[in-house]
Specification:
This protein is α+β, with helices and mostly antiparallel strands. The protein has one domain. Helices cover 37% and strands 16% of the residues. It has two helices and three strands; from the N terminus they run E-E-E-H-H. It has a three-stranded antiparallel beta sheet, covered by helices on one side. It is elongated.
Length: 81
Amino acid sequence: MAFTEYELIVLDDGEIALQRAGSDEPLVRISFSPSIMQYLDGKHVEVAKSMMDAGIQTVFDINEDRAPSAIETDEKHQTLH
């Protein structure tokens, strides 16, 4: 399985974006309102990182749910006594 590195960047407009390393195309963007920026007092990047981490973990969880189980459901099982 190929390993893809991702990076968080701050765009010129102040948005935080997630992109593949070496790419210029953001996959996800997070934008904070001016009042939240003031409230976070410069910690918005840490909050965005936590948000991205949670989203990535959710994607992994979804993919695990989609993975076929080790036991095929249409197999016939016999009961031995």
